[in-house]
Task: structure prediction
Amino acid sequence: MRKPLVMGNWKLNGTKESVTALVNALKAPADKAAAKVDVAVCAPAVFIGMVEDLASGSKLQWGSEDCDVHTKGAFTGENSPTMLREFGCTYAIVGHSERREYHKESNECVAAKYKAAQENVLIPVLCVGESEAEFDAGRTMDIVRAELKAVIDLCGIESFKNAVIAYEPIWAIGTGKTATPEIAEKVHADIRAYLASFDADVAAGVRILYGGSCNAKTAPDLFKQPDIDGGLVGGASLKAPDFTAIIEAAEANA
Result:
């Protein structure tokens, strides 16, 4: 049985005041849901120490929005996976579409970050997904398979025993558009089938999250789908009532 995971990705948002209020508000819902659902927030690096201090002792987990391939050295501005782990991070998001687009991260670069995260005791959250043009052209799984295959080639299929996948249709991120539960489920099922072509047991066990404008309104129907194991939540994760409702939707369908 796969335990659902609801994860907030704060992106480039937050102040000391808002982070304090948000984390304090999420501890009780995370504790309440803990038997059935894992709850986590991924914060900008500058706030991770605050999140550690605020969330310690609760069931709320935390992680980073990215990590570097290097653990130390002359790489100004990067965030080492060993440093992230020192501040209590459980997860590191890798390959988010915004990183792929704005920072020109290739599939091979993302795979290297995934490998570095795992080697330093972080659980990588591998983001995969297609643009609107690729979706319209029916190329969704061509894109997703290539993104997965880069990781399999570098790290092996067994690596997905200690990883999370987030399917994020790029055309639905921050746009208010959401893939219908049926569209999202088909892609999730196709991802699991593709992984099963390498190892059925690994495919059956890996958690696959939906990450395209998942919010309090859409979450209940999305989480009813058999291959959707939770959500990677953007804007709604910045609002405690909305994120709490998403956690409760995952708990209800666990």
